[in-house]
Description:
51% of the residues are buried. Strands 3, 4, 5, 6, 11, 12, 13, 14, 15 and 16 form a 10-stranded mixed sheet that branches. Strands 1, 2, 7, 8, 9, 10, 17 and 18 form an 8-stranded mixed sheet that branches. The two termini are 30 Å apart. It is built from 18 helices and 18 strands. The chain has helices at residues 9-18, 30-41, 70-74, 78-94, 111-129, 142-148, 169-182, 237-242, 313-326, 382-397, 420-425, 429-438, 454-463, 469-476, 479-482, 484-497, 499-502, 506-515; strands at residues 20-26, 46-49, 65-66, 100-107, 138-140, 159-166, 186-188, 191-198, 208-215, 221-231, 252-263, 272-276, 283-289, 292-296, 300-302, 339-348, 363-366, 372-375. Helix 2 (30-41) crosses helix 10 (382-397). By secondary structure, it is α+β, with helices and mostly antiparallel strands. Helices cover 36% and strands 22% of the residues. A hairpin with a 5-residue loop joins strand 9 and strand 10.
Amino acid sequence: MVDWSDQTRDQDFERLASQEWDLLVVGGGITGCGIALDAASRGIKVALLEQYDFSSGTSSRSSKLIHGGLRYLKQGQLWTTLESSREKGLLRKLAPHLVRDLPFLFPISGGWKQRTIVGLGLWVYDLMARRPRGLLHQHLSTQETEKMIPGLSEKYDGSLLYFDAETDDARLTVHVAKRAVMEGALLLNYAKVEKFLLNGDSAPGSAISGAMVRDTISGKEYTLRAKLAINATGVWCDETRDRAHVSEDKLVQASKGAHILIPYERLPISGAAALGKPGSNRLLFLIPWEGRTLIGTTDDFYDGPLNNPQADEIETASLLEQVNSALPQIKLTKADVVGSFAGLRPLAKSEHQDSSKVSREERIHEDETGLITILGGKLTTYRQMAENVVNLVAKKLGRSFPRCRTKSISLFASPVSKDPIQSSFGSEAMRVQRIADECPRWRQPMVPGQSPIYAAAIYALRYERAVKLSDLLLRRTRLGVLDWKGTQVSALQIANTLAEEARWNPEREVAGLLEEQP
């Protein structure tokens, strides 16, 4: 792994401004990082700029599922389901330590008719995913279902068991970003595109020729030159288009997905569950994740502030009510909630009044300035989305480039393990362990009762371009999401312990962390 630390950011900014780039990617979520990896691996000279931190938007706030999209199959979106199923299988090969099989229960409350219809759908689902015999869906009795999901309401008559996968979305994004850097891409966080430069000074027909960029840490401004630009900023994509003097209509509408986390001991499920909501086509997910039980998600159109959305009291109460309806013996209350987060889905503008019915297929749009915008899609299909965009880029550049290679580029793959370091860092786990051996302090957990140790933070500072304390505690590790109270208590101690390595002001970093409360 190359040195990719805060201490090399100034050099990267100088490199950014000193040469012309084939491609500028704006947006450091999973889609933008995927595009950077694909482009760099084909020999395209690519720079990526993210105005906040990598994965700080939607890409760290998903339901943590790598899935084929069973509900998309129900809605007739067959291509979305097929593509998702194929990409899910591929990601399990590229990052098996991070993308892990997850048994999923679909409890049956509609008798033999629902069991038959769902069962037929799962046969199609299994065929699309090319599941081996041991991972084909199964019918479970009421007793078998109760063992996996304790306290399930008597209204359910057994269940169907199928398999999807789960991941740590922020870790997956930084895996892709690191690999892009290793392939020669330049990736900068806290680098805001203030405006795009046009070769005709905003006259009709002018094309993008570069951008004015500000390092939001130092305040310095830089000018870069680029032949093409990709807008991969998700729900911010229309704001980004405004900086290119685009006159066309808006492309995106946001949908908010809120999630809550409760202690695993309060709901010790041995598999995930998809529970139907009465009178709705929406599903409620219960997911065992990182020692917690994750409950989500809402899916409602959203027109509030885009930065740092949070699960509000109404959404939290609604999720608790739905769980208690399905599992009346559990009796969850607000006091059980130990964490929460919310993400915004960048959906294409639609006439649908129900956000859950809007297609999740990606959309590629080109403005009159030549700015290419990618929106829609989902975490599972990021690699295919990137391939589609880079195919277009290669054609527009008018030169011969190799075909997409990302189906075979390992994302630091290592075997599935119960070791939390290997699960988070894959083949880089040995490097984290060597850091732990440098100093006894680095082997200690940062937050009591949680697994991430200081060595993981040191690694993230040196090799994952972590700049702020919030980068470390909310995204490189998930301490602030899994245990916000414990993280708050330990934050100043953590900041002080890492101060020499990170070269930061501990009090200022803690204040910044509190502003980003999930």
